[in-house]
Write a structure and sequence with these properties.
- The protein is an all-alpha fold and 287 residues long.
- The protein has a domain of 164 residues.
- Helix content is 59%, strand content 2%.
- It is built from twelve helices and two strands.
- It has a two-stranded antiparallel sheet with strand order 1-2.
- Strand 1 and strand 2 form a beta hairpin.
- The longest helix has 22 residues.
- The two termini are 32 Å apart.
- About 9% of the residues have low confidence.
- Keywords: Metal-binding, Nucleus, Signal, Zinc, Zinc-finger.
- GO terms for molecular function: zinc ion binding.
- InterPro entries: RNaseH-like_sf, ZnF_BED_domain_contain.
Length: 287
């Protein structure tokens, strides 16, 4: 598309990471889907489930259906079934004992914390009103840090964890070397250097920005020789030069618009980098 640069969908890539990892618990997912489908098809079963929720003072919630084309569907489906777990166990025991999850409950409850950061990132990055490109490097960094601190007791959940780490590394290992993402991170007053793991990548992005702002052109207008009439229209002065006033105006112009625009732009960037960080929840566009 002309000179427009194509950027892959970060949320889509994150979703692919989760899909690949949750293949390790595909048997459990199939069982949960069967339970969801049962309560969707059976009005009697749904009535008993709701009755159990009321008796147990649980929130009156419906189970969430599998929607493969929707991001986060795996997390949402598992999170919902755990939220009303006791009611599901009771109702299944009375109506469809063959759908019992048994040891799968421990897998579900242990895998949810691993999927939670991916759910949060996808939700955040998909919000249309938020600045998102500058968050990509930071979010990758946070996910990798959380995964590094995570552990699992069940072998299948451990397998999920290992695939999450592997997929994140394969897809985002060099994300800080992407100069577009890096520059956006530097220019977000919430992140700047704090957003990087690799100091060299930060310095490379800053140098790229210095080169960019240093090449910018500041337009000059010969305001010293112009005047305005009562209607705000500009007229060129053809009168005899007033050397004292002209010298003063020229000096003022040098102060307000330095001759060395490259140095001026770099200094402005350096001032920005040395300023305090903006709060994470603040809007960088209002900075």
């Amino acid at each position: 598309m002309g000179n427009w640069r194509s950027i892959g969908c970060f949320a889509h890539l994150i979703n692919l990471v989760v899909q690949r990892a949750t293949e390790q618990i595909s048997d459990t997912l199939v069982k949960v889907k069967s339970i969801v489908e049962y309560f969707k098809r059976s009005s009697q079963g749904l009535h008993k489930l709701q009755e159990s929720q009321r008796q147990m003072n649980l929130p009156l919630l419906k189970l969430k259906q599998n929607v493969p084309t929707r991001w986060n569907w795996t997390y949402e489906m598992l999170d919902r079934v755990v939220t009303i777990k006791d009611a599901v166990i009771t109702t299944i025991a009375l109506t469809r004992n063959d759908l019992s999850l048994q040891e799968d409950w421990s897998i579900i409850e242990e895998v949810l914390p691993l999927l939670l950061p991916f759910y949060e990132v996808t939700t955040e990055i998909s919000a249309e009103k938020n600045v998102t490109l500058s968050k990509v490097i930071v979010m990758c960094k946070m996910i990798e840090r959380i995964l590094a601190k995570s552990s699992a007791n069940h072998s299948k959940v451990q397998a999920v964890l290992e695939v999450l780490k592997k997929e994140m590394n394969a897809r985002f290992q060099n994300i800080e070397n992407n100069i577009l993402f890096a520059k956006c991170t530097v220019l977000d007053p919430r992140f700047k250097k704090r957003g990087f793991k690799n100091a060299d990548c930060f310095e490379k992005a800053v140098q790229g920005l210095r080169n960019k702002v240093g090449s910018g052109q500041i337009p000059h207008t010969n305001e010293a020789n112009d005047s305005f009439d009562g209607n705000g229209l500009r007229h060129h002065q053809h009168q005899q030069k007033a050397y004292i006033r002209e010298e003063y105006d020229e000096e003022s112009l040098k102060i307000s618009r330095p001759e060395n625009k490259k140095v001026s732009g770099i200094k402005e960037l350096d001032r920005y980098l040395n300023e305090d960080y903006l709060e994470r929840k603040s809007d960088p566009l209002e900075w």
